[in-house]
Amino acid sequence: MDKMVIYGGEKLLGDVRISGAKNAALPIIVSSLLTDGWNTFHNIPDLADIRTIKKLLRGLGAEIEGESSVRIRTGEIASCEASYDLVRKMRASILVLGPLLARMGRARVSLPGGCAIGDRPVNLHIKALADLGAEVELRDGYVEAKASRLKGASIYFDIPTVTGTENIMMAACLAKGTTLLKNAAREPEVVNLVEVLNGMGAKISGAGTDMIIIEGVDSLHPVETTVIPDRIEAGTFMIAAGITGGNVKVSGCDPSHLDALINKLRDTGMEITIGDGGIRVKGNKEITNVDIKTLPYPGFPTDLQAQMMAFMSVGMGSSVITETVFEKRFMHASELKRMGADIQIKGNIALIRGVLKLKGAQVMATDLRASASLILAGLAAEGKTELSRVYHIDRGYQQIEKKLSALGANIKRVVNTQAEGI
Ligand code: EPZ
What we know:
The protein has helices at 22-31, 48-60, 84-87, 97-104, 123-131, 162-172, 188-199, 231-244, 259-267, 305-312, 331-337, 368-380, 391-394, 400-406; strands spanning 3-7, 13-17, 38-42, 63-65, 70-73, 81-82, 106-110, 135-139, 142-146, 154-156, 178-182, 203-205, 211-215, 224-226, 247-251, 271-275, 278-282, 292-293, 318-322, 342-346, 349-353, 362-364, 384-388, 410-414. By secondary structure, the protein is α/β, with parallel strands linked by helices. The chain has two domains: 3-19 and 229-414, UDP-n-acetylglucosamine1-carboxyvinyl-transferase, Chain; 22-226, Enolpyruvate transferase domain (UDP-n-acetylglucosamine1-carboxyvinyl-transferase, Chain), CATH 3.65.10.10. A four-stranded mixed β-sheet has the order 22-23-1-24. Strands 2-15-17-16 form a four-stranded mixed β-sheet. 50% of the residues are buried. The model has no long low-confidence stretch (mean pLDDT 96). The structure holds ligand EPZ. Ligand EPZ binds at residues 22-23, 26, 92, 118, 120-125, 159, 161-164, 302-303, 325-326, 368-369, 396.
């Protein structure tokens, strides 16, 4: 397994260009299942998760060409089954459930299972599909669903689930009648998917609010579109500028997707200027600690919580971080403590007391955003940090070490050809 080797202490300076959003590209690629012609999607990021979803769709019969601009046609759907070995690698695979059901009238998708940040149930997806008239059964670890034609319904989500909203929207596009989605997710990635589906001929309104209305149509046609920039990648680089006291222009991002983070980073003493096609962020010598509470969009994103914990661990005071979205998304804390961070965890609350300096150490990535957090800590730490299991980071960041090196970071990827001992 590859690892990253970082020597800390360099200020990040220069311009970084943000790639397409992983969490927009995944549902948009899956939406091609709803049409039988050639779709073209631009600004697709080069990530492990994108390769996984393409492999899954090819297994269902899709023809797929291209990398950053991807052409997809699912004229013939050869299979309606998403197997465990693919779904367990990426839980977003559950997104094929709704489109397969809507297009083919049946679907058999493995339950994703949990991951490092939580159990990740899909009960809300399943309940909503049943509300749309599907017969849904759980058998041998798979969701088995069938419906001759889905029927519009009024659906309430107990939690504004992001992929749940996306799954049900895609299913409801081809249902007979109108569907109301109440307490729907408001993330920009959901809004991007609605734009794509409406471009295919769907009739969806209310995107970006907690009430989405989908008027069912009989069929959809292919579309050409461009995926929005990745707000979590952008936020990660903004925090990297803060923790290294650097001065970075984050280009090609959409500042309107980052209000919660911009607000918090300004409170830490960073200077943030919006304009000229991006955001310029300047770190401050003195880092003021802030409290963070993660919430569904437009609240502070849970996907930036780990990165902020690294940043606050070198502040001048103390921070309380409350994680309300996932039940165990503090795996990075123990690794940060091995670098000298002072962090106490009580349930879903972390108390961070700032220390003068972190110390480089051998650390291990446990999940995608925890890996980003440890890289940020390594950039600021004294000495050498070795991060193992970097396959986690490759799921969601396109060539992060190249982008950081171009900003002056001393970071290298060491390709380890031997399989590491168990
Ligand atoms: C999406 O995951 C993102 N992934 C996650 O990003 C992100 O952290 C999350 O939304 C929250 O913003 C993609 O978009 C591919 P949820 P998702 O359903 O849809 C509970 C990253 O790092 N829940 O909004 O799986 C769930 O357990 C990833 O890029 C149920 O209880 O998240 C969680 O506690 C990580 N039952 C909460 O809701 C359900 O049926 C929010 O989950 C569904 C969800």
